[in-house]
Amino acid sequence: MKTFVTIILLLFVVNASALTTQQDVFKKTYKKALKGDEQAVVLAKKNFPHYRLNHYLDYALLKADMKNLPEKAIEDFIKQNKNSPLNDLLNNMLTYELGKQGKWQKYLARYKNNKGSQTKHCWYLHARIETADVKGLPQAIQDFWMNGLSLPDACNPVFKWWEKQGHLNDKLLIKRFKLAYKVNNASTARYLVTKMKKRPAWIKHALSLMEQPNKTLKKSLHWQDNKINRELVYLKSKALASKQPDNMYKLWNALKKHYSFSVKEKAVVDRNIALFAATDYLPFTIKAMNDLAPAQHDAQINAWKTRYYLYKGRWKSVYKAIKAMPDFQQQKDRWQYWLGRASAKTNRQKKAKEIFAKLAKKSNYYGFLAADHMRMPYQFCSQDMQGEAIDKMPENLENAFELFALDMIRLARKEWIAGYRELNTKQRRTLADIAYQKGWYNKVTAIMGALNLWRNYKMRYPLAYQQEITQLAKKNQLLPQWIMSIITQESAWQTDAISRADARGLMQLIDPTAKRLSKKLGLKYTGKQQLHQAYFNLQLGTFYQRELFNRFEEHPLLALSSYNAGETKANHWLQGFPTSPDIWAETIPYRETRDYMVKILTNITIYDWLINKTPKRISYWLPTLPVDGKPIKAWPNKKVSEQLATVGCAQ
After folding, report:
1. Which among 290, 230, 318 is positioned nearest to 266, based on CA atoms?
2. What are phi and psi of 577, to 5 degrees?
3. Cβ(598)–Cβ(582) below 8 Å
4. pLDDT in tens, 86-142
5. Do 490 and 620 fall into the same domain?
6. Residue 150 domain-assigned?
7. pTM
8. Domain for residue 257, yes or no?
């Protein structure tokens, strides 16, 4: 396979120095083209007439000229570049601009559906008003308006027209008010009340429940038991049960006596109280869970009952809770590990050894832990598949690699999607090798996942930016496998990654943190986009990891949990929690943080093996927790935690 991969790679290397010049000229010209500089584009094309990305310069000019609605030019571009992902981008931009400018007839001709932008759909409704296409329009507007959430300002002219036509009435306002109440959208609810000609008496109750829920729920014990009051109280009780289970436990019992809730409504709130009582390890947790109907004892309840017993150190109950799980849940690695631990703690040593010996064959967190308990080797059984030569690389993929080299990753990704689907399974395996050679590691790991090659460790866990990471890790007294593991989990090596919380880049840093760290390091920070520069992100991220280690007594689990959930939460979990690291990690209330630590510790062990051949045992990263000021100790003991693991492959 190496031979044809090498041949394919050579297809991309066309006079390296000339290509570098082309890239440099293109990148500078592209920026100018985005500002409408046609002369710069003409000159660049003259100097490099056959450069494969020249059509991107035309695209940039069209984008710059979008306010002038270059419809004919866009049409010509699409004809000349039939397979380009830029076509959809241009069409979408043109459609948006037509709506923004109120070119309603043309907008209607281009608008497709309302599955995307609410603003664009409001423009569609507005366009129909302006073009007198009103058949069925009032109902369409009503359907869109009937939403508990706030809607964009672009909708205002549409709703004003609809209201002037006499379609808005108290019945509809009340219906939407109820939707707003369900999602606790108090601002929209208050606005809707101002439009009502006659307000029902219960509206006051609803507003009060949104503004002062606890106080009002207590008052509701004196309200009349009717359908609307029951609905209001039920919805607010359901919401508060997950936020304040302690307060709701007694209050809900009183509310159930006063109101004739349905069996289903009672069950929902009862379950919420029991479940979220468990996440706070409240004393009434087990009683609340045991009082649930048998049908409500699902996988989530089973899991939290077990965690509650783990938190309390009640090993006999841990054992019984896991054995009571349905087989599909009990056989998961997580619960097999805890069944093994509970067996060992309840004098079932033979059972514990059997479970751990079987689990130790797995190359994951639970397998490594089981191997440590048994002093067994770690198992790394690699897998791969034979690739197939790509006789002619799809043009979209060639464009994608070129754009990637220019750090134009968003556009590169669109070209990749278009080209990737042209390859068969074996060719995609070959493509992964090419992407690895070119440093597009995010695509490598994605291909391995798509091909179910989960145990192709060298490809799924790339030793990317190894020199830079090693230097920065050494400077900050960390190990490179630690940083690589965090990157693998945080961004999967995607330099332009952006999370829902607007965390960015390889190590997923948010803007305020980046500003603070840059100042400490004496680095110039120019804004969020800078976080997509790999080395800059690594500088800040590694330094931040050192800060967290300093902050939390060099404890790996505390550094990880605070990186994911925040320092305040990590501190909170140092009060009253178990000191045993595996139990501590399992009993953290946040699912995301629990899973995060499990994945990171798996990654660290695999990276340690890839870098050093004989990895540290996972116990090295798991000393006891300094809960309530207790000293940190090696776990399960110093002898195990200081060992290097031998590695094998027992199928």
Report:
1. 230
2. -80, 160
3. no
4. 999 999 999 999 999 999 999 999 998 767 799 999 999 999 999 999 999 999 999
5. yes
6. no
7. 0.91
8. yes
Residue 22 covered by a domain? yes
Phi, psi of 541 (to 5 degrees): -65, -40
Residues 6+ away with beta carbon under 8 Å from 48: 22, 25, 26, 54
Q: Per this entry, what is the length of the chain?
A: 651
pLDDT at 6 over 90: no
The sign one gets for the Cα dihedral 300, 306, 307, 312 is: positive
pLDDT given at position 114: 65
Q: Which helix (H) or strand (E) holds 311?
A: helix 299-312
Looking at residue 528, what is its pLDDT?
97
Q: Are residue 443 and residue 490 in the same domain, yes or no? A: no
Nearest to 95 by CA among 104, 86, 82, 84: 104
Are 584 and 598 a contacting pair, CB within 8 Å? Answer: no
Contact status, residue 60 vs residue 30, Cβ threshold 8 Å: yes
pLDDT digits (tens, 9 = 90+) for 156-195: 999 999 999 999 999 999 999 999 999 999 999 999 999 9
Q: Quote the mean pLDDT of the chain.
A: 95
Verify that 534 and 593 share a domain, yes or no.
Answer: yes
User: pLDDT band at 12, cuts 50/70/90?
Assistant: very low
In whole angstroms, how far apart are CA 443 and each of 457, 515, 628, 630? 15, 30, 44, 45
Q: How far apart are CA 289 and CA 278, in angstroms?
A: 9
In tens, the pLDDT along 409-453 reads 999 999 999 999 999 999 999 999 999 999 999 999 999 999 999
Dump pLDDT digits (tens) for 511-544: 999 999 999 999 999 999 999 999 999 999 999 9
C-alpha–C-alpha distance, residues 28 and 33, integer Å: 9
Give residue 10's pLDDT.
Answer: 38
Residue 504 and residue 583 in one domain: yes
pLDDT of residue 2: 41
The pLDDT value recorded for residue 9 is 38
Q: Residues 396, 85: contact at Cβ < 8 Å?
A: yes
Distance separating alpha carbons of residues 549 and 560, to the nearest angstrom: 9
Note every long-range contact of 321-326, with CB atoms under 8 Å and residues 24 or more positions apart, other chains counting. 325/299, 326/299, 326/302
How big is the chain by its Cα radius of gyration, in Å?
A: 30
Give the CA distances from residue 199 to residues 210, 219, 236, 258, 619, in Å, rounded to whole numbers and listed in that order.
17, 21, 21, 25, 64
Residue 13, pLDDT above cutoff 50: no
**507 and 585 belong to one structural domain:** yes
Q: Report the interhelical angle of 365-374 vs 349-359 (nearest 10°).
A: 130
The widest CA-to-CA distance across the chain, in whole angstroms, is 84
3-class state of residue 509 by DSSP: strand
* Cα–Cα nearest to 462, from 439, 482, 479: 439
The answer on 572 and 501 residing in a single domain is yes
Same domain, 216 and 355: no
- Whether residues 257 and 308 share a domain: the answer is no
- Domain assignment present for residue 125? The answer is no
Residue 591: CATH number of its domain: 1.10.530.10
**Could you tell me if 330 and 314 are in contact, meaning their C-beta atoms sit under 8 angstroms apart?**
no
Percent of the chain scoring above 90 in pLDDT: 95
Number of domains in the chain: 4
